[in-house]
Specification:
Blueprint: H1 11-16, E1 42-55, E2 57-59, E3 68-69, E4 78-80, E5 101-114, E6 123-134, E7 158-166, E8 174-185, H2 197-201, E9 212-225, E10 228-241, E11 251-263, E12 266-277, H3 293-297, E13 316-329, E14 338-353, E15 359-373, E16 381-389, E17 398-399, E18 432-433, E19 447-459, E20 463-474, E21 479-490, E22 496-506, E23 515-525
Parallel strand pairs: 3-18, 15-17
Antiparallel strand pairs: 1-5, 1-23, 2-4, 5-6, 6-7, 7-8, 8-9, 9-10, 10-11, 11-12, 12-13, 13-14, 14-15, 15-16, 16-19, 19-20, 20-21, 21-22, 22-23
């Protein structure tokens, strides 16, 4: 499942890194600085993930294999097992063998950055590959996201990144990197290959609008001095869908971002992202775009422009533009115990429906979060966040919800700072992800969400206790659910996390409250 970003693979290691004291450090005597270590030609980082899950969420679609994604209760067939059980074979009696889900899923990922010294480390290759599977799910075949059956021998290698990296000389205090090829694309100004997790989840739109892989060209720049960043920028163009190479029937993404540092540890950003969709909704098995089954599967809108219920859906094209501003102070908690950040964005544009009138787009997204490190240890953090998005109007002449990259690709965007396991998408899932709200569009109905969390390092950098709470309603004030979860995280080695977690969601539309319990391992390899 393409949810993880490269920087997330450093999260476990950073969780064990010593936290700066909350007071100013003592002045060190003047000494000659040590020379910087020589850069290796090849930098390799790997991550091993394993999760054992027990839950009352079941998949009723017998044809789904490997990945299972989308909204709980949606078109993916995922639902909550009711107290009386489910009758799938239609014989009038519950299926006695359907008792819930118990499984172990595992993933191995490798990220490579090859920049030869002979080229002064200024030309390189960025690559990432992964193999993931469910224990016992297949062998002796070829398929993605499978291959844990008896005997093994399953071909299951996925390419996540494959791009050229160019770092031209741009003068003192000015770093530039040009990335060409298949790469991770976020919705902020930071280069995902070099960024920290907080730079991606707590800057720009926090991956709530765009957070996926795409092939294209991006330029990342940074102006800095001894005081830190002064200016960051990004510009890029990506091919989202390529149908006929000689026909104008594709979808492309264009991004431009600028972040200015007016004061210490403060960044103010401007953002413009545009999706040019000329596909007529045609690509893959489920189609693409805001009127596609793909969008509806993943919790985005599935707009219906048929003139009658039994009519054929018309061709749909779109111009979708996001304009946003974000601001943050100490968003990564790297320079003090308190941090705050926020994003406000407006979505405008037009949907073109063949043989019908155009549909205007007018949506919005607002997200604000504050955090405070209240005790020793990087896990001792209190946080609170609110997010709201526009809801769809009642007429066919305008759509006033939001549209994210989830309408154009599998897991195209994932809001990841919320701290929940079931209500919203957990960004560390492997192959099975069926939250109640996988997309901030919430099916076009809009979203009102409030989340809060408290963490305590019982033993600083070794043992952490976390608890989170969240409540969500749609734009019409109908309740979606309220989650409570808790985790106990141990860090026995540098870069390794072993944890226990449990979560439940109350107040949903299901007869039974969804719940899950898990044991998990994340180990970072250098």
């Amino acid at each position: 499942m393409s949810v993880l970003v490269p920087a997330l693979f450093l999260a476990a290691a950073r969780a064990q890194a010593p936290v700066e004291a909350m007071v100013a450090p003592a002045r060190q005597p003047d000494v000659e600085p040590a020379p910087a270590p020589a850069r290796a030609d090849v930098v390799a980082v790997g991550l091993l993930q394993a999760r054992g899950i027990t839950t009352n969420i079941v998949t009723t679609n017998p044809f789904l294999d490997g990945q299972v994604i989308g909204a709980l209760g949606g078109t993916n067939g995922a639902t909550v097992l009711p107290p009386a059980g489910l009758d799938l074979d239609g014989d009038g009696a519950p299926d006695s063998d359907l008792v819930g889900s118990r499984y172990v899923e595992q993933r191995g990922s490798v990220f490579l950055d090859w920049a030869p010294k002979a080229l002064d480390h200024r030309v390189g290759l960025l690559a990432a590959f992964e193999i993931d599977y469910l224990w016992g799910d297949q062998s002796y075949g070829t398929n993605g996201n499978t291959g844990g059956g008896l005997g093994g021998d399953q071909v299951n290698l996925q390419t996540r990144r494959l791009a050229a990296s160019l770092r031209p000389r741009a003068g003192a205090g000015h770093d530039v990197e040009v990335v060409a090829g298949l790469q991770f694309v976020g919705d902020g100004v930071y280069n995902p290959t070099r960024a920290r997790p907080d730079d991606l989840f707590r800057a720009g739109a926090g991956l709530a609008v765009i957070g996926t892989e795409a092939a294209g060209l991006a330029v990342y720049g940074r102006l800095h001095d001894r005081q830190g960043d002064r200016l960051r920028y990004r510009a890029g163009a990506f091919s989202m869908v390529e149908n006929g190479v000689g026909i104008r029937d594709d979808a492309a993404l264009f991004v431009a971002d600028l972040a200015w540092a007016p004061a210490w540890q403060t960044l103010v950003g401007l953002h413009a992202w545009h999706i040019l969709d000329a596909t007529d909704g045609r690509a893959g098995t489920l189609g693409v775009g805001p009127a596609s089954a793909l969008s509806g599967l993943q919790g985005g809108p599935k707009l219906d422009f048929r003139p009658a219920p039994d009519a054929t859906a018309p061709d749909v094209q779109a111009d979708i533009t996001w304009l946003g501003v974000d601001a943050g102070f100490n968003h990564a908690l790297a320079a003090g115990p308190f941090g705050i950040r926020g994003f406000a964005g407006a979505m405008v544009g037009t949907i073109y429906v063949r043989d019908q009138g155009d549909v205007a787009l007018r949506g919005y997204l607002i997200d604000v979060e504050a955090r405070h490190r209240w005790a020793r240890g990087s896990g001792s953090v209190l946080r609170a966040e609110v997010l709201t998005t526009g809801r769809d109007g009642t007429g066919r002449d305008a759509y006033t919800g939001v549209i994210t990259a989830n309408s154009y690709g599998i897991v195209g965007a994932v809001w990841g700072s919320h701290g929940t396991l079931l209500l919203f998408t957990d960004p560390l899932v492997v192959n099975r992800s069926t939250p109640l709200v996988p997309d901030v569009a919430n099916g076009g109905r809009g979203l009102r969400a409030a989340t809060a969390g408290a963490g305590w390092d019982i033993i600083p950098e070794k043992l952490t206790l976390q608890a989170n709470a969240a409540h969500a309603r749609d734009g019409y004030d109908a309740p979606i659910g309220s989650e409570l979860n808790a985790r106990l995280l141990g860090h026995p080695f540098f870069g390794t996390t072993v944890g226990l977690g449990a979560a439940t969601v109350r107040g949903t539309a299901f007869d039974t409250a969804p719940w899950m319990a898990m044991v998990h391992l994340e180990s970072l390899l250098f």
